[in-house]
């Protein structure tokens, strides 16, 4: 029986302490944290896990240097703390990276002020990262010749971190942690009906893949529907202190623009920072920050052209980037928190709205709602949701802290030694890591041992699937078994980043695709 069918069976007729609606980062961390605290947890998402906002981020784990512009010191302090915590816990998945911010006519600050700001930011981050630097134009030309320094007055380089794989894979890690702890989790399962009962909630869930309904009971609900949190609360007639407004952001994936692993940062013509971020052998340009009322607006021509114009005028390229150079695109809305009783924000500068999150509890309805939030702050969200459930008098056991983080360095090195025996010490073609073993460990942790065993049994399984991709056949087989892949895009876009770094239509037409689908059970 597939992992998904097994979980559907557990959901049907089940009785849970908590049902989490929404399997983005906030729902996934909540599931992992609450399972760790001894609760019977069910997690559903009407699409794939991380199939909405949590697959559209900039992949940055950061303290929010740019929020200093709005003097949001407490938020930056908190995000730096969370960033440092995540960097310690995920040493292979999250890497420190330099942000080289070139200051030119669009920069709202003179170089001396930006330099002071970067030192202040380093201090707020408790000096956890490498120190910031200031560079004159000659130095910029030397270290990043692709940057057009005509009109530049200098650059600062400050440090933050980024997810080496994608955001959606990071989210999957929490879903897997919840499953390993005994939670029930199902993707493509939507909330079809919910009624208050003496014991909490009676819920009907629709399996979106077979169109069948099933019922369950839950003592409480965590509303982790991201941009849709207000819609669910309205359905339940809940009055909340906070609500969500949307800010749209897009990214374009293009061929590598610089050989270094740095992020290049520039102020766009509206004086807003945007970035060129490394992703395997590609570069990701983004993001934008525009007000919208629509949660699932894709990338439009205007967005695309804006980013291409901005980047073309700030780099020395042999020929300017055009839409033909775009390999993949991302578009999402940041769910930003505002007070329900406050203004309607029609006159607010959208880019200045805070990026903090709020967790609210309705004791009467037994619903905990999560508003906003960043991937960077995810561990705090998990802990805050656990505290909120305690307020509902649901008894929790002590936290073990086993629900997040990678195993220790010595466990990792033991894996590398084992992996080297089957040739996985070679450097991968596109992933820019020291060895294939490092990439496998980063993606699968201890489960990567199963890949080594499969290659020992059949060395052909150690070869890359889909041409020169760094995804091995043994890895495809493991994902088919453990990662609840129900559609090909779950594999291409979320469990891996293949359809971001290669063109999706070419992957689908690849001669290896039928075998990939067979191993995934599709
Ligand atoms: C352009 C952009 C760039 C960003 N960059 C960064 C960054 O670099 N670093 C960072 O830390 N943060 C970043 N963020 C913020 C971060 O990505 C989001 O705040 C976060 O992903 C929100 O997660 P979520 O779980 O609240 O929402 P989502 O990921 O949207 O999850 C909500 C889920 O609920 C499901 N759902 C909704 N209704 C129902 C229902 N009725 N039944 C079942 N399921 C339902 C949806 O399908 C969805 O999967 C960025 C955001 C954007 C848009």
For the secondary structure, the number of strands is: 20
Helix content: 25-40%
- How many structural domains does the protein architecture include? 3
First-residue to last-residue Cα separation: 13 Å
Please state the overall shape, judged from the principal axes of the Cα atoms.
globular
- Biggest sheet record: 10 strands, mixed
Map the helices and strands.
Blueprint: H1 3-11, E1 15-16, E2 18-21, H2 25-36, E3 41-44, E4 60-61, H3 73-89, E5 94-103, H4 111-124, E6 133-135, H5 137-143, E7 154-163, H6 167-180, E8 184-186, E9 189-197, E10 200-207, E11 212-218, E12 221-223, H7 229-235, E13 242-255, E14 263-267, E15 273-279, E16 282-286, E17 290-292, H8 301-312, E18 328-339, E19 357-362, E20 367-372, H9 378-391, H10 409-420, H11 436-444, H12 448-457, H13 473-482, H14 488-495, H15 498-501, H16 504-508, H17 513-520
Parallel strand pairs: 1-11, 2-3, 2-12, 3-8, 5-14, 12-20
Antiparallel strand pairs: 4-7, 5-7, 6-7, 9-10, 10-11, 13-16, 13-17, 13-18, 14-15, 15-16, 19-20
The structure holds flavin-adenine dinucleotide.
Overview features:
522 residues; alpha/beta; FAD/NAD(P)-binding domain; D-Amino Acid Oxidase, Chain A, domain 2; 10-stranded mixed beta sheet; 6-stranded mixed beta sheet; 17 helices; binds flavin-adenine dinucleotide
């Amino acid at each position: 029986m597939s992992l998904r069918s097994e979980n559907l069976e557990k959901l049907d007729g089940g009785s849970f302490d908590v049902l989490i609606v929404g399997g983005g980062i906030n729902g996934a961390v909540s599931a992992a944290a609450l399972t760790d605290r001894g609760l019977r947890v069910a997690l559903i998402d009407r699409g794939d896990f991380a199939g909405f906002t949590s697959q559209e981020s900039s992949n940055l784990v950061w303290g929010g240097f740019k929020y200093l512009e709005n003097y949001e010191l407490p938020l930056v302090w908190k995000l730096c703390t969370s960033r440092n915590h995540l960097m310690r816990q995920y040493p292979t998945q999250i890497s420190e990276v330099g942000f080289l911010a070139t200051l030119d006519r669009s920069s709202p600050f003179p170089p001396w002020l930006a330099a002071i700001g970067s030192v202040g930011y380093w201090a707020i981050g408790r000096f956890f990262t490498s120190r910031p630097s200031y560079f004159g134009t000659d130095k910029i030309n030397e270290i990043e010749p692709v940057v057009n320094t005509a009109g530049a007055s200098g650059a600062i380089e400050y440090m933050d971190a980024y997810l080496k794989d994608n955001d959606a894979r990071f989210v999957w890690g929490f879903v897997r942690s919840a499953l390993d702890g005994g939670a029930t989790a199902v993707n493509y399962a939507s909330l079809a009906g919910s009624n208050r009962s003496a014991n909490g909630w009676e819920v009907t869930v629709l399996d979106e893949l077979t169109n069948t309904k099933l019922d369950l009971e839950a003592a409480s609900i965590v509303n982790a529907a991201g941009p849709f949190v207000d819609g669910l609360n309205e359905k339940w007639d809940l009055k909340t202190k906070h609500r969500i407004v949307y800010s749209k952001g897009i990214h374009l994936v293009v061929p590598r623009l610089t050989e270094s692993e740095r992020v290049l940062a520039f102020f766009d013509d509206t004086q807003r920072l945007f970035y060129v971020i490394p992703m395997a052998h590609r570069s990701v340009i983004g993001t934008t920050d525009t007000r919208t009322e629509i949660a699932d607006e894709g990338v439009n021509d205007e967005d695309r052209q804006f980013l291409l114009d901005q980047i073309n005028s700030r780099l020395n390229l042999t020929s300017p980037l055009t839409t033909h150079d775009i390999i993949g695109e991302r578009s999402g809305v940041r769910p930003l928190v505002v007070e329900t009783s406050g203004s309607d924000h029609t006159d607010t500068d959208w880019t200045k709205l805070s990026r903090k999150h709020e967790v609210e509890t309705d004791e009467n309805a037994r619903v905990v709602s999560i508003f906003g939030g960043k991937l960077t702050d995810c561990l705090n969200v998990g802990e805050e949701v656990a505290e909120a459930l305690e307020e509902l008098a649901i008894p929790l056991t002590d936290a073990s802290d086993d629900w997040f983080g990678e195993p220790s360095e010595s466990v990792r090195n033991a894996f590398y030694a084992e992996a080297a025996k089957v040739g996985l010490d070679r450097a991968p073609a596109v992933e820019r890591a020291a060895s294939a073993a490092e990439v496998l460990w980063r993606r699968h942790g201890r489960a990567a041992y199963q890949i080594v065993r499969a290659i020992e049994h059949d060395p052909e399984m150690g070869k890359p699937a889909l041409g020169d991709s760094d995804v091995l056949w043994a890895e495809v087989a493991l994902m088919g078994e453990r990662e609840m892949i129900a559609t090909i895009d779950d594999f291409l876009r979320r469990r891996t980043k293949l359809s971001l770094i290669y063109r999706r239509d070419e992957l689908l037409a690849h001669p290896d695709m039928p075998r990939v689908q067979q191993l995934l059970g599709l």
